[in-house]
User: Fold these one by one.
Assistant:
Number 1:
Amino acid sequence: MGWQENVIQYRRDLHRIPELGFQETKTHAYLWDRLTSFGLEPKAIGGTGIMADIKGNQSGRTVALRADMDGLPLQEETAEPFISEHPGVMHACGHDGHMAILLGLAERLTGERNFPGTVRVFFQPSEEKLPGGAPTLIEEGVLEGVDAVYGLHLWADDPVGWVGLRPGPMMANADQFTIRIHGVGGHGSQPQVTKDAVLIASQTVVNLQTIVSRRLGAFEPAVVTCGTIKGGQNFNIIAETAEVTGTVRTFSLETQATVEEEITRIAQRTAALYDASAEVDYVKGYPVVINHEREANAWAENLRGLVEVEGPEPNPGGEDFAYYLQHRPGAFLFLGCGQDDNSSAPHHSPHFTVNERALPLGVEVLYRAIEA
Ligand SMILES: [Zn+2]
Ligand SMILES: [Zn+2]
């Protein structure tokens, strides 16, 4: 059997043994075994991560290709014959497919040895939860000697044969904030001796809406969502404290900085207006994934005739692949893996499945990054 069939088996094997971030020990052992069986000398990196270099038969640049390794804390509810054997853990984002594609590519490259330069395949622990495995791998040298870095994400919303790839922002800064308002509580009949935290929280939520509408330009996209507002104990008690939480999505570091500053300013000054106080906890998620122009365009050009390449709108999700692109030129794309009958469940759903026809295609798509 060739890599075309093996890639499907690899994914099924990995699907059975999903593990959470930085705990990918069985996954590590499985990848290690396969890479060694191809004649490679893998190296452990960043805890459960692995990298291996494959030398071509011509001179050329060193290209790094990444797959993420972790599953999600979710009980699988599909009817797949290779369903998760780990209760409460599931590959529900397609990272099993990413690893299989990269293994398939390593198998193909070691078999053919007909490419320029060096290809470094690397498997990264923990993409799903902060702080992500990428910063550790970079610190431990995964990009040393590397000229460009590429990666992909399976994408169930689009069919097999579709690829989303564009220069510039591909995915968002995905941040979260918590605003704690401290007022003075009291009897519902005596507002004059209180500082009503529920009222202040309400004003804060309204005032935060002016960030997007009045502090950002027309071509600076951003989302500021207040997801929860909590405060108060009873109908006739004025609340002493209240809490507002929310999420922010932006597509540049500049816009991100503006929004963070404005949230803090508005929360504190709104509270001050009513003689109360507010503290803001702003937690940055993964930075925006920004594809480099030359690499994204060249890869898209190489994919012509193989798949339908669309330059999609930036995806408001987050991805720690962003860190690699802050250090080296490269690109990240979405590879359609929707079921042919449109029955695909969304990523992170317990019903999530992958159309396996996307897997051998994924090997070819990554292969075409080598000379991009
Ligand atoms: Zn995910
Ligand atoms: Zn994912």
Note: The chain has a mean pLDDT of 97.
Number 2:
Amino acid sequence: MIELREAGYSFGGEPLLGGLALTLAPGSFHFLTGPSGAGKTTLLRLCYADLLPTVGEIELFGQSTATMSRDDISGARQRIGVVHQDCQFLDHLSVTDNIALPLAVSGRDVDAHRENLRELLAWVGLGPRADALPPELSGGERQRAALARAVIMDPDLILADEPTGNVDWEMSMRLLTLLAELNRMGKTILVATHDLGLIRAAKAQVSARVLRIAGGQLQLAGADL
Ligand SMILES: Nc1ncnc2c1ncn2[C@@H]1O[C@H](COP(=O)(O)OP(=O)(O)OP(=O)(O)O)[C@@H](O)[C@H]1O
Ligand SMILES: [Mg+2]
């Protein structure tokens, strides 16, 4: 799915990440941890070619991001569902319309996906909130809507940036269960989180590897988490 080879990233000449080596195999589940400001969001942005590495190489679905055209990148992005750290909804559109937005943007017939949308809303437990506007949602409801929007295009890879930020433990577990279900359906998952409790709880549900960013480098964290 994704391969990083000695990749690194600098913001304005200031090195942030370096020597990144990582292979995300199809169907794998990885957590990405590290302190605030370590570069978790930046690494995810590299993984969906929102940023290009300033050194080294990143291969996305077998093609180097450096040689990808705009069309190649938008094609690759259709296979990737991203849950952004700050959710980012259009506040004047209903929850359903926000979740359907990737369909509309890619020129699909949204009406042909009504049933699919209804099922997806039920799956994340937002059936009764289908017509609500984003500002009317609780934090946990927003996170579940963001997850639904990330999977509406049936992506192969899901990159989730702090998908359990600002929600209570019970809601974190609910989101984790949804991610584990997606992984069981064969999707490749990478979840950035600072919540070590979440990672520990995940061990009961999925076989996940834990990556940690420390000092600008990516390490495989020990099994003692
Ligand atoms: N566009 C940018 N320009 C300059 N510096 C940036 C930019 N985006 C992020 N940074 C810096 O890069 C570092 C890593 O940011 P990043 O958002 O990747 O961290 P993070 O690990 O996701 O943190 P958090 O846990 O708080 O979400 C931070 O010091 C941040 O200030
Ligand atoms: Mg972040």
Note: Residues 89-154 form one domain.
